[in-house]
Write a structure and sequence with these properties.
Shape: globular
Strand order of the largest sheet: 4-3-1-2-9-10
Helix content: 40-55%
Largest sheet: 6 strands, parallel
CATH architecture of the largest domain: 3-Layer(aba) Sandwich
Length: about 270
Amino acid sequence: MYKVGIFDSGVGGLTVLKKINEKIPNSHILYYGDSINAPYGDMEEVDIKNLCLKIGAFLYRNQVDAIVIACNTATAASITELKEKFPIPIIGTIEPGVKAALKTTKNGCVAVIATPASVKMNAYKNIFDIHAPENNTLIQKDCKLLCPMIEKGWEELHGNYLTDEIIRLYLETIPERVDTLVLGCTHYPIIKDNISKYFKKNIVDPASETAEELLRKLSKSRPKNAHLEEGKLEFIVSGDKDLFLNFAEPFLGKKIEKIYNLNLNS
């Protein structure tokens, strides 16, 4: 059995965890939600990188077979350093999202909505330019309010007028020619239904592609944890456990039995 470490700045990475749990149901997943420092999208790159290296070291000490950076901003800031530091597969969310968008688009015009830090770092553009044909175009849209809004309480977002109005204002600036929209933050799939009211073409959630990439990487490696006999989920959060549980349990559709509190910066 494989033991997989997953981390995010808060609850957004659960969208990736859910897909991984579907594709590798017998895996042992250790999830770290750094909610006390959320959202990463408003922080400087060096600060995000330092947080990610601490979390990566913690997961590696816990004998995981792979680490999934279930956060686009964290992926952009730290994936290179994490790959250099830890001799296990390190999977981010950006490259799988770009590849999925390029498979989906019919006219080569793609937009990505993301956090301010991801846009500032050209997180998607740098990867898009590597993989996309020369005549393809990527438009990046900074959506500063969405991630903190989702962290505050997803159950209040559905059908909420203010939520819909914020989304509409962000999406109305995306050119009509764009035929594919990438959800460039792992929090955004949580409000995909709201987003689809205002973008009625192709919407790409990188979570499925990220889970597929993890499966491919794990199939090429030997598990350290072959002795583990059944899958399980363990959660560690740096902030409020109850706030995390109030989101995670209904979203995952199951009772969370193992959740711990640990702030790696304290």
